[in-house]
Amino acid sequence: MSAEEPLFRVVRGIPTAEELAALVGAIALRSRPAGPPPPVARSTWARSARPAGAAPAPGHGAWRASGLPR
């Protein structure tokens, strides 16, 4: 591919400058290598709603035990 050859071409329609910019942005985003996912930040409120220990084991009485304080 030479430096004068376009990376892509429009074969139908007449896109606006904004539509072409969106297309170029999407192509550039998809061509980057995927990195590790960003860490999930959990709020203090969300953490307080979860029990500190392991989750209750499934089985007899698990539903009731899941709502009881530890």
Automatic annotation (TrEMBL):
Alphabetically, the GO molecular function entries are: acetyl-CoA carboxylase activity; propionyl-CoA carboxylase activity
Disordered: annotated span: 32-70
Low complexity: bias regions:
46-70
**Pfam families per the UniProt record, alphabetical:** ACC_epsilon
Q: This chain belongs to which protein, by name?
A: Acyl-CoA carboxylase subunit epsilon
Q: Which source organism?
A: Micromonospora wenchangensis
